[in-house]
Amino acid sequence: MKKNLSIALGIFLVIIILTVCLLSFIYMPHEPNEMNISQKFLKPGVNSEYILGTDNFGRDILSRIMYGSRNVLLVGIGSVSLGTFIGIILGAIAAINNKLLSAVIMRIMDGLMAFPGILLALMLVTVVGRGIKGSVIAISIFMVPVFSRLVYSMILDTENLLYIKAARSYGSSNLTIFMRHYIPAMLPRLVTQFSSAIGSAVMIETSLSFLGLGIQPPFASWGLMLSESRQFFLNYPYLAVAPGIAIIMTVLGFILIGDGLNDMLIHRRSDDE
Amino acid sequence: MLKYVLNRVKSSLVILLVVSMITFFVLMIIPGNPAQLILGTDATAEAIEDLRIAMGLDRPYYQQYLGWLLDLLKFDLGTSYIYGEAVTSLIIRAIPVTFSIAVFAMLIATITALFFGILSAVKKDSIIDYFSRSIMQLGTAIPSFWIGMVFIVYFGLRLKWFPISGFVPISSSFAGFLKSIALPAIVLAIGETGTLLRIVRSSMLDSLKQDYMDAARIKGLNKWKIYMKYALRGALIAPVTIIGMQFAKLAGGTVVVETIFALPGIGRLVLTAVERRDIVLLQGLVMFITTTVIFITLMVDLLIMTINPRIKSVERGE
Asked: What residues of B are in contact with residue A115 (Cβ under 8 Å)?
């Protein structure tokens, strides 16, 4: 795929999702939790009032998708922002400080990295509890080691660059050097990683809510909508189409932006990866 | 060489120790009293207190941790509240299920990624290249539970090619076994192939640029023979590392897929433990899974060292 094309497609997808989310605060065709049993299992396109059809309780699928985008984006962007923030601080502390503190922090990060897939998120949800708060905390802790390792290794890599040494010789404090010199130097990688991380966070959030451990019913979330559609899926397959496509668009959008940025900002040379 | 091996083993053990601390202390701060959970809501306060003392929950945290760690070393993971059975035996029963789908998923992913990865690299910038990479990119963005649902309905219920739930042990029927793990393995493979394909493609491209490739071409060797014999060998290190990591991740339990296909594997146990708040079971499972992951990663590292002794851990970014 051509690089510019992939980033353009990514931005296009993310803009659609963001627009849907913002629009949900201004206008939704129906109240997302409003049940209307007489209108249940309407297929998409049959009734102009319910463009994407209705579910087993006669709830409007379009409105639920719109409402669900808020939760997905809140958890996705919120948890990655929190994880990035804590990760940068821990990584910087580990890179700048003495050996003991650095070793302690980085071993904890190694330990967190050893939890595969959503295991860490599942364990944390058990402790924090189900729902939006639980998902945000669980996913942000999942993201911390990714960013702290990145920052740690980038600081160690750039430590010996002349301009950093020069700044040090002027007597700039660690904090000043960090804010003035390291952060701008690290920005391309951080932004790239940030975008891809949102893609994974959305995937984890939808998995958690699919498993019934994320946002609780009757509130709408894409993963939960898919999980609820399971028992009717054989006769009403359209129930799973809209939430599935919404998830794929969101995850793909953020991953494509991450990939595109990676190629543009970091590996300028390569059309190879 | 020996020093490198010892160092890797030592750092794996340190990580394992850190993981055990994280697991123990995270699950310690869980709200609710385990004794209360076991006895239920109608138990008297005295009975709960007695059980708490019997379980050693009145001791200071560090003593509880050391006791738990000592038991771990003896492979004693405690008894699950909800199953009333030793956690170790629950895990042993679930291993074949998870292990089988993980092995088959990685087989499918590896074969697909090698095939399309090599083709993409050799035919760089062709239609095949763009097409295979776009499809694989899409594959990583599709949630496994969605694909799983679609597969169950079309291949399981409509076409009736595969059973839609449950696991058939290999000992009772080989064909039945293959059928019962085919769909879950394919679903998992779809998620893993994309990453692997990119690595195969980029390391194959690297390897095609090497001087010895020119030498082979000048000698007039057959094109595909060059690709398969020389280029691929040079290009395999990075993919092997990734395959190892992906396998480790899958072997650690595939919660979502096991849930959709109702397979009695490690992932299902994890979900049950989380849902019912069975802390002992969850602690045991987490330790088992992370140990497996760390062990497989270590084995892959050592394997790569034997394939290519020049590789120092530094070069792999550790």
From this structure: 19, 286, 289-290, 293
> Which domains are seen in chain A, by residue range?
2-21+63-272 (1.10.3720.10)
Domains and CATH numbers, chain B: 2-73 (no CATH), 96-316 (1.10.3720.10)
Q: Six-digit token pair at A188?
A: 């391309």
Q: What is the pLDDT of residues B7-53, one digit of tens each?
A: 889 989 999 999 999 888 888 766 666 666 666 667 777 777 777 77
C-alpha span between A206 and A221 (Å, rounded): 8
Could you give the ipTM of this predicted complex? 0.83
CB of B1 within 8 Å of a chain A CB? The answer is no
Condensed to tens digits (0 to 9), the pLDDT of residues A91-122 reads 988 988 778 888 889 999 989 988 887 888 88
Asked if A108 lies within 8 A of B143 by C-beta distance, the reply is: no
Token pair, residue A42, equals 């309407």
CB–CB contact A125 B259 (8 Å): no
How far apart CA B230 and CA B237 sit, in angstroms, is: 13
Residues of A in contact with B203 (CB under 8 A): none
Q: How far apart are CA A92 and CA A152, in angstroms?
A: 6
Question: Global pTM?
Answer: 0.86
